[in-house]
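Our collaborator T.R. sent over the components below with a one-line note: 'Predict the complex.' Nothing else. No constraints on interfaces, no templates requested, no preferences about which chain binds where. So this is a plain run: every listed entity goes in together, and whatever single assembly comes back becomes the starting point for the next discussion.
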Amino acid sequence: MDEQIRALADAHRRRILELVRDRELAAGEIAAYFEVTRPAISQHLTVLKQAGLVDERRAGTRRLYRTRPDGLLGLKEFVDRLWSTGLSRLKDAAEAEATDPEKD
Amino acid sequence: MDEQIRALADAHRRRILELVRDRELAAGEIAAYFEVTRPAISQHLTVLKQAGLVDERRAGTRRLYRTRPDGLLGLKEFVDRLWSTGLSRLKDAAEAEATDPEKD
DNA sequence: CTCAAGCGTTAGCGAATGCTTACGTAAGAG
DNA sequence: CTCTTACGTAAGCATTCGCTAACGCTTGAG
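Returned assembly:
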């Protein structure tokens, strides 16, 4: 999971994941959305692929990328595990409020 | 959200969040769980606090920390947004299966 | 085979990150 | 007030990161 979350730690890479969330895009097309050079995006794509967050498919001389949500499973579980604590606290608060209905 | 996810990009900090997930611990107590020096943990706690991922409470000379799940809201939304794509793909697969019940 | 398109890869650089050691600070004990 | 406890903070260093510029590779067109 370390690899995935560190891949997400960069804003460019997060934006790439949203760009190819529900459609395939070629590396050059992705790069066109950013103001950094194409090799920089290529490196980001390598990191994302290595982390299992995107799929790569070759079509002729182009390489098409697409988000692979399964790669986020570990991180999602981690976040949900911490988040559930917050939910139980809200539940406690709600129960306390039910006991003392006047409180706000 | 950038600050929060970058705070999570370090394994020590993730473990700290789990340690103080549902109980308060003093800085020194937290540090005892790790093999790095206490100042290193103190710096990690500063990062977590800055990102809004932990609450700090002073009690005498001690400082008690506790995970603050609300800080994860932005990241949770981001992950869920990408994750939902995976779910809709599973849904498509399920519907295709419903159309062709023989398939498994 | 030759050429161009579309990408990845490498080298090198400045900035950021995480660590340790040494020092500074606030609160309670005596 | 003095000393100790429990911390945070600053300085310095090695490592990692993200970027650009230059180069290399593979595919399809002719």
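Summary for T.R.: Confidence is low (pLDDT under 50) at residues 100-104 of chain A.
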